[in-house]
Structure formats: C-alpha cells, structure tokens
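Q: What structure does this chain adopt?
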Amino acid sequence: MISRLPFAYIAVLAISPGGVFADTVIEGRVELPKATTVTVVNKRYQVVTKGGEITSNPPQGVVYLEKLDGKFPAPATQPVAQMAQKNLAFVTPLLPVQVGTKVEFPNHDDAFHNIFSFSPVKRFDLGRYRPEERPIPSQVFDAPGIVTLRCDIHEHMRGLILVLETPHFTVTKTDGTYRLGGLPAGHYKLKAWVSSTRVLERAVDVKAGATQKIDFP
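A:
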C-alpha cells in the first residue's frame, strides 16, 4: 500500500525554509570592466593590465557572501578544487576557493608545465611536470587574498585564484550575470570582486526561501 502525504503538508515542505524544494537565492548583474590587452613589461613574469589592475581574461567577477562579524565555520572535510592547463592556457582563468582548500593543477597538454606564484598570499613553484605524473601537483591555500598564477615555460599563461573566508561564492558569466544559491538566512555583506582595485559591497538581509535581485552597477 502506498502512503500518501496530505496535500497541505506537501505544500509546506515546498515553501518552508527546511523544505525539500526551498532555496535561498541572490541573483543579478555586476558591471564588469572592458577587456584589456595584457602588456608584458621589461621584468620577466611581471604582467600588468591597463592601469595596473589585476583582472581576469575575459573579464569576470566573483560574488560572495560575508558575515558582518566573525567568519563562517571551517568545512568538516577539506575542499578540493582544480585549475587545469589545456591548450597552453588555464581552463579556469578565475577560480574562487574557500580558505583551506587544496587546489590541484592537472596538466592536460602533451607538454611540460611549471606553475608558480610570486603573490604574497601564496608563494610556490610546482616545478616541471607532464600530464601522466601522479599525484597531481597541488597546493593548499590557507590565507585570504588574490593569487596570480604563471607558467615558467609559457609566459603568456596567467590564472587567478581568489581565496575567500566564505563557502558562499560564484563566478559571474562574461556578461556579468550571476546566481548565488543555497544561502543561509541572516544579515550579511554581499561583495562583488571585479579587480584587484575594485570590490563592490552591499548590505543584504537574506530571507529563507526567497529570491532577491541585487545588481552592482
């Protein structure tokens, strides 16, 4: 015999904060900078964009939720993310991660790569490695900030890792639109990282089960 839930009870599940179908969402659009041509200056590996800003290529942003005071609790298990190399480029040119995340750097090219960072937030040099080498070279990113990645062999390659003190983040599409779901209810700061010199911020009251539209012009 099939047990059937009363219709009213199903409706409560669908709309309540703890319901199976409930989700708490913020969506909108971030005004992104226009694409700029990366210029290589005299000193090797020193790459700047127009005005000295560090931006992703193509331009994208990262929208994330921060507590007004304190930090979100650390995850029960260590998060793992990947920034692969393929066709002599970083597959994910802009990668946001939570503090404590292990990032793997798989090589999908039939060539050596040597990924490194001179950024104060995280300095490392993975050395030269081919695609078949195991374990996959990795680093743990344990401090917040922006990390610029380069390849010692292919000087045109550049990637960005944005290390955040929150598990709630998303990368915008290239047109600036974003959708951030699965959020906890409460009062927070909603931020949009656009470049190394531009982070936009809005106070936000997140209501369980609701969808809000917030733009960053």
